[in-house]
Automatic annotation (TrEMBL):
Residues 462-473 have a biased composition (Gly residues). Residues 23-443 form the Amidase domain. It comes from the Bacteria. Residues 457-483 are annotated as: Disordered. Belongs to the amidase family. It comes from Streptomyces amritsarensis. Residues 474-483 have a biased composition (Low complexity). Pfam families: Amidase. NCBIfam families: PRK06061.1. InterPro entries: Amidase, Amidase_CS, Amidase_dom, AS_sf. This is Amidase.
Amino acid sequence: MSDCGLVGMAAALAEGSVSARQLTEQALLRIAAAQPDLNAFRTVRAEAALAEADAADRRLAAGERLPLLGVPLAVKDDMDVAGEPTAFGCAGSFAPKTADSEAVRRLRAAGAVIVGKTQTPELGQWPFTEGGAFGATRNPWNRSYTPGGSSGGSAAAVAAGLVPAALGSDGAGSVRIPAAWTHLVGVKPQRGRISTWPEPESFNGLTVNGVLARTVADAALLLDAASGAHPEDLHRPARICAVEAARRTPRRLRIALSFVMAFTATPKSLDPEVRSAVERLAARLESLGHEVIAEDPRYGPIGLTFVPRATSGVRDWAERAPDPALLDPRTREAVRTGRLLGGLPLRVSRRAESLLRRRVGEIFGRFDVVLTPTTATPPLRIGALAGMGAMATDRAMIAACPYAWTWNVLGWPGVNIPAGLTDDGLPMGAQLLGPADSEPLLLALAAQVEAAEDWAARRPGRGGAAGAAGTGRAGRNAEGGPP
């Protein structure tokens, strides 16, 4: 059943061909088998999940039907699950939470079984999922490489088939980057689409909750189930129906193909394999009847507004750590920066957002969608950024991932779609970016591309991926162990 995806599992449960307990037991067995190698989960809720599955089976037997009733899912470890700690990648002993976050509450209201919480780097800061608190989370396509970050645990769990879909969060590409590097659909929705409560907004509006899945239909189903505002949320966009949107064929669109990177005063360049993969997708879009034209958004000084918001957010989260001495030195440096920039610079950054929306949004007067790479490089090796200082880490991170963060400043939707594999079998991705509230259009377009590309049929260990079973440059065997 792990192959049938979220939509398939939900349908099988509704028709009675499988039980929630069976699906949950199978998911827990897969997680236990993969955990020593992939290390996708921070917390596994085996006993609690089985109890939730049994309750779901009783509800199904009584004739109740909900969108996700009995389906095992995972959430990132920056989301509160009642009875579990929220360590957010940090070391130390955190007290269990007494209530679910709003996004988790909505998943439960839709009937989902929460099997566990997935790994994330410390406070979600980096595009790799490694840390002193938990080790390294590995990429199912090649164990010597990272699945990305900061929603790397959720991406690894979905790509490896441990769960059919998962929630992540995206503050600078943290859903889209790991989706790109694990061959998944990753949806960063409009700010506020999925509540961040108990935070009225997260990281000064940069971070939103999003979804990772193997197909657009699965992503849309999870997006609809998780969406909705808490009464005290600062951002409350109008409701959409992602499932219906994913079933529609889009009209002929004007699509801007852009490889420009917003100014950051740091060196960066686009890997030729990534560029070629995105150009191939542009040709695919043309073959589907769309008009694709080279054109760049006018990003202007958008980078200046990101750092105060991000580092102030790190400062606020770090105050919750039970032992600040256990924080990564790079986190402590970000905290110091956040203290410096958390006053007037932060207020100016927030006020600049409306101007930046008008400046960047000018392109949507002429185009419907912007197509860019999701990252500038294929996945990084495990440990590639380990031991670096804060500035060196930032420079390396920006060099690998210069494309995603701008949309977090603006609060607009973006969808990663698989763009193919490198010659070494490592996944790459492309972004479909739109203006405010454009998820329906982006999902319809993504589904149209998926129908032509059939990317869900290609999974780790299948479809000729050189690194899927540890062959190629990783030098690991089929079980992911050393050669």
